[in-house]
Amino acid sequence: MTRISLIEYGSPVHLCQVNNPSTGLSDDELGKLILKSGQRISRSLKLSSNPFEINDRSVRISDIAGLVSVSPRFELEIAPKFLGLDSSNKRWREDFFFLATLSKHGRLLNNDRLKAETGEMGIFIP
Q1: Closest by CA position to 54, among listed 63, 65, 62
Q2: Cβ proximity of 30 and 18 under 8 Å
Q3: What average pLDDT does the structure give for the chain?
Q4: pLDDT by residue (tens digit) across 62-121?
Q5: How far is 94 from 63, CA to CA, in rounded Å?
Q6: Angle 86-107-65 (CA atoms, 0-180°, nearest 5)?
Q7: Judging by DSSP bridges, how do beta strands 58-61 and 52-55 pair with one another?
Q8: Looking at 58-108, which runs of residues are DSSP E strands?
Q9: In this model, does residue 50 exceed pLDDT 80?
Q10: Cα separation of 1 and 72, whole Å?
Q11: Strand-strand pairing, 66-71 and 2-7
């Protein structure tokens, strides 16, 4: 399983930087799967547009954060714009998903088969 991390509203990232040989996909195939995942998310969450935008073989993400299954061997981790990516403290995921279950706007895509591990209880300080 390959999981690539990006930031919501971050700079576009070229598909060759996102793709990994373990996916077994070309950059074009991966781009199509990412767009298809975005269409599925748009329908599920009733968004007005696809949250994944691919221009010049680069992907940019808007309006969503969390983990998204793109294929059986590839997941996108989308860090919220206000948290970014912090390699020294990855506990934000557990807090973020906990808050998503309590929030009016948070949604869990139950049909996505995401890989998970146990985590620690974090403390949310607004």
Answers
A1: 62
A2: yes
A3: 79
A4: 988 888 888 888 888 888 887 777 655 566 666 666 666 666 555 555 555 545 554 555
A5: 20
A6: 30
A7: antiparallel
A8: 58-61, 66-71, 74-79
A9: yes
A10: 8
A11: unpaired
For the cut 80, the answer to whether the pLDDT of residue 2 exceeds it is yes
Q: Is the alpha carbon torsion for 12, 17, 22, 27 positive or negative?
A: positive
Token couple for 31: 């781009």
Distance, CA of 2 to CA of 94 (rounded, Å): 19
How far apart, in whole angstroms, are the C-alpha atoms of residue 27 and residue 25?
6
What are the two backbone dihedrals, phi and then psi, of residue 7, each rounded to the nearest 5 degrees?
-115, 130
Q: Distance between CA atoms of 50 and 101, rounded to whole angstroms? A: 22
Report residue 122 as tokens.
């974090």
Determine the residue type at 106: G
CA angle at residue 81 from 68 to 93, to 5 degrees? 50
Map residue 44 onto helix, strand or coil: helix
Residue 41, SS3 per DSSP: helix
In 3-state terms, what secondary structure has residue 70? strand
Query: Is residue 19 within 8 Å of residue 25, measured between CB atoms?
Result: yes
> Whose CA is closest to 125, among 86, 90, 92?
92
